[in-house]
Write a structure and sequence with these properties.
The chain has 27 helices and 11 strands. Strand 10 and strand 11 form a beta hairpin.
Length: 669
């Protein structure tokens, strides 16, 4: 098939030759889908700093986007809008072709086609843009949406090479997957707590931009792979969805569009749509892309997070989340689970996940602030909804895990004093009881942690939030600590293997204590340390001194002074929980490895005292040489329990080293 002629398409649009340009646009869209065309990825950082010269093809794509925007502003035929907006969605994937789409008119046109009533008013020519579907109804609310794509960015916008990320304290990064053959479209996954900075230049003399956004990476396709026949069953909603996809791509790709979206008051329009959905009998279909745009705006524009919170966004989003998950409330903080109920549908779980990500954006900056009474009540109710979400199952296992992951992220962002509702649920039939408390939620968190321990990908993003959440919960709630300690650190009986060996939860956590990623290492060590009531001897007993040294050095506890000088948790007095097996082997346990070592022959057996002294002098000489050449620096434990460089008199050390070398030379002669 011949490639579409962009010049001919532009000319036919100008001449309003609808039959010609629709056929060519359809060919263009089919070509994109068939060949899996992707936006240009620079091969090096120098490509990003080019002089911004424009190729003829790029100029034609910019002109085509401008012509289509002008055309759809006065168009009301659903089939025509669907084709035109699908082409605009494809063009919006490429940041270099965004010049003609970065105008207030283009943004408001797409917003209104997507069903968003922005507060800003366009000129008279724009104000007439409210197309009808030909049957007397408004095109902005016609039909029912087909199902959105799974947890993905709207239309596969791909970050450019050189993009790097820096995470918050609680990281949740999204997995990147390449598109497989047969994909209808590729879409980008967006996480909520990682920032990247990129510098681009927009073509067509629009604006030089510096994009600051939150972990926008290539995502995964919709596994349901809906075909065009099923997608087109409600064409009014199809082109509305295409408009929203295009708008999301533009906002994602351009900091200028992000700024104008804020100035054009798209946020109030989105909140109005969301509030209308909460008043409906059931969650409206097609809500996914509205939530995705709201997530983008709150992720990319800090002032919109503040605005959303001031306008009661947390309460509204919590209500929308309840609409998706349908909890049955026994009282304000207690949702009654229904084990026989159907699993959450894929579409509703996707919408719930987007809401959780938006709520994370809004609440994360306030997590260390003391909430007032009104905010505390709101956060407690939200925590009760999150508890319900942790105990739910979705139609697909990956959807269940995704929902739980974002629920954990949000719980870690809420004030700690508002999480008491996780354990305040009365016991009922089938509940997991421990010391008189309902441990269903804690058990669900522990199972989620175990699943993440079995994985190698996205370990930091998925594991550190739940580790932090469990650690803080153990610090403030004795029953939670007792329950988790029984599950993770049972009484020590077998001391013949190293603590890091084996498949138990404890062994896997101990292995993470020497992980190359410092965040993962610190979080795993902190949880085990708190489970040991921040007692050094008990911590070393369960993990071995070698594994524990990192945390002990950071806290100034290498000299083994029992608890830290200022433990954050309130712990009961220590009790002797040593088993008989441990007591019998205690004297033979190597404290460094944490196990009973086999007896090894003495390497200095049979050596005279002079030979032993000579070997010691050689060892000292080698250590001094390593220190002098700055290959290795000897360290010592200070009285404060921290590591510090071993200060030796420089002249004495050098003199000893020099004398040793001279003696060796004389022996060789």
């Amino acid at each position: 098939m011949m490639e579409p002629d962009l010049e001919r398409i532009i000319q036919s649009i100008a001449e309003e030759d609808q039959e010609v340009f629709l056929a060519e646009l359809q060919k263009y869209n089919d070509e994109f889908r068939r060949n899996k065309v992707r936006d240009y990825v620079p091969s090096s950082d120098s490509d990003l700093d080019s002089d911004g010269s424009e190729t003829p093809e790029l100029i034609l794509r910019q002109k085509l986007a401008a012509a289509l925007i002008r055309y759809v502003r006065s168009q009301w035929q659903p089939q025509v809008l669907k084709v035109c907006l699908r082409t605009l969605r494809i063009l919006s994937r490429d940041w270099q072709a965004l010049g003609s789409l970065l105008t207030d008119t283009a943004l408001l046109t797409l917003a209104r086609l997507g069903g968003i009533n922005a507060l800003s008013v366009m000129d008279e020519e724009d104000s007439s843009m409210n197309p009808s579907c030909g049957d007397g109804t408004t095109g902005l609310s016609t039909g029912t949406d087909d199902e959105p794509s799974l947890n993905t960015h709207t239309d596969g916008v791909k970050p450019h090479a050189g993009c790097h990320t820096q995470s918050h304290e609680s990281n949740v990064n999204s997995e990147t997957r390449s598109q497989q053959p047969g994909d209808q479209q590729s879409e980008s996954n967006i996480n909520t707590d990682t920032y990247t900075q990129e510098t681009y230049h927009i073509s067509a003399g629009a604006h030089t931009r510096r994009n600051t956004h939150e972990c926008l990476v290539r995502g995964k396709r919709d596994s349901r792979a809906k075909g065009d026949d099923e997608e087109d069953k409600e064409e009014g909603e199809v082109w509305r969805k295409e408009a929203m996809k295009t708008l999301c791509n533009i906002v994602y790709n351009s900091s200028w569009a992000q700024e104008r979206a804020s100035a054009l008051s798209l946020l109030p329009g989105l909140l109005d749509k969301l509030e209308q959905g909460t008043r409906a009998a059931a969650p409206p279909s097609g809500q996914f892309y509205e939530l995705r745009l709201l997530f983008l705006l709150t992720a990319l524009r800090p002032e919109l997070r503040v605005q959303l919170q001031k306008e009661g966004g947390v309460s509204l989003l919590t209500t929308a989340l309840e609409k998706c998950l349908s909890p049955q409330w026994k009282n304000f903080h207690e949702a009654v689970p229904d084990p026989s109920g159907p699993p959450v549908s894929t579409e509703l779980s996707q919408c719930a996940t987007e809401i959780l990500k938006i709520l994370f954006n809004v609440t994360y900056s306030n997590r260390r602030q003391q909430p007032d009474d009104e905010s505390a009540a709101l956060y407690r109710h939200l925590a009760a909804v999150l508890r319900h979400s942790l105990l739910l199952s979705c139609e697909r296992d990956e959807s269940t895990e995704e929902l739980q992951s974002h629920a954990v992220n949000l719980l870690s962002a809420l004030p700690l004093e508002c999480l008491d509702v996780l354990l305040s649920v009365p016991l009922s039939g089938g509940s997991l009881e421990w010391e008189g408390f309902n441990m269903d939620c804690v058990h669900a968190l522990m199972l989620f942690m175990e699943k993440q321990l079995n994985k190698t990908e996205k370990l930091k993003e998925r594991l550190t939030p739940v580790l932090n959440l469990l650690t803080e919960s153990c610090r403030v709630h004795r029953q939670t600590r007792h329950y988790l300690r029984r599950q993770i650190l049972p009484p020590l009986r077998d001391v013949s293997v190293r603590p890091e060996q084996g498949d138990s939860v404890k062994s896997r956590l101990v292995r993470l204590m020497t992980h190359v990623d410092t965040d993962v290492k610190d979080c795993a060590a902190e949880l085990l340390f708190v489970l040991c009531k921040e007692n050094v001897s008990r911590f070393v007993k369960y993990t071995g001194y070698g594994n524990a040294a990192g945390l002990l050095a950071a806290r100034g506890l290498l000299r083994g002074r029992g608890k830290g000088s200022n433990p954050q948790g309130e712990y009961s007095s220590d009790s002797n929980s040593d088993t008989e097996e441990y007591k019998q082997a205690k004297a033979r346990i190597n404290p460094v490895t944490g196990r009973v070592e086999e007896d090894h022959p003495d390497p200095m057996e049979g050596m005279t005292e002079e030979e032993k002294e000579e070997e010691a002098q050689k060892l000292i000489s080698m250590i001094n040489r390593l220190s002098r050449d700055q290959i290795n620096e000897p360290m010592a434990v200070t009285p404060e329990g921290k590591l510090a460089p071993l200060e030796l008199p420089k002249q004495e050390a050098l003199a000893e080293d020099r004398q040793s070398e001279e003696d060796s030379e004389e022996e060789d002669k």
